[in-house]
Design a protein that fits this description.
By secondary structure, this protein is α/β, with parallel strands linked by helices. It contains 4 helices and 7 strands. The strands form 2 sheets. Strands 3-2-1-4-5 form a 5-stranded parallel β-sheet, with helices on both faces. Strand 2, helix 2 and strand 3 form a beta-alpha-beta unit. It starts with a strand and ends in an 8-residue tail after the last strand.
């Protein structure tokens, strides 16, 4: 699985390191961060030539199977953008724990969207409803 890590700060760079070295079946395809210097440093240290500074463009790359979204301030909007682009994601924390604030209108799917929800650390799977549902 070719993974893009969006966010190369403390947590994002640690996620990228684990993907690159310790997760069988995963390939660190892209590291993305708003800071060009930081992303290049992390990408170089982990042996990937793909460093990017545009998160939205990274989400829609055809050579990325999954995006891991790390920066706190980007959880909601990048998770929503990935869902709308039909790109599977892992997000450190839930973008929302209720439907208010989720996009309205026809998402093009009538299904439940998987996301990560808080459980004291980072990773219990919990469903977030499609925009056509009224509550969790």
């Amino acid at each position: 699985m070719r993974v893009a890590v969006i966010g190369a700060g403390v947590m994002g760079s640690d996620h990228a390191r684990i993907l690159a070295a310790d997760l069988p079946g995963a390939h660190l395809q892209v590291v993305c961060d708003a800071s060009g210097d930081r992303v290049r440093s992390v990408a170089d240290a982990l042996g990937t030539s793909n460093a990017a500074t545009d998160a939205m463009a990274t989400l829609v790359r055809s050579d990325v199977d999954l995006a891991l979204i790390s920066p706190d301030e980007t959880h909601a909007h990048l998770s929503i953008a990935a869902i709308q682009a039909a790109k599977p994601i892992l997000c450190e924390k839930a973008a929302r724990t209720h439907v208010q604030g989720m996009p309205r209108g026809n998402c093009g799917r009538n299904q439940r969207w998987p996301t990560l929800g808080p459980n004291g650390f980072h990773a219990s799977i919990r469903p977030i409803p499609c925009c056509n549902e009224s509550r969790v």
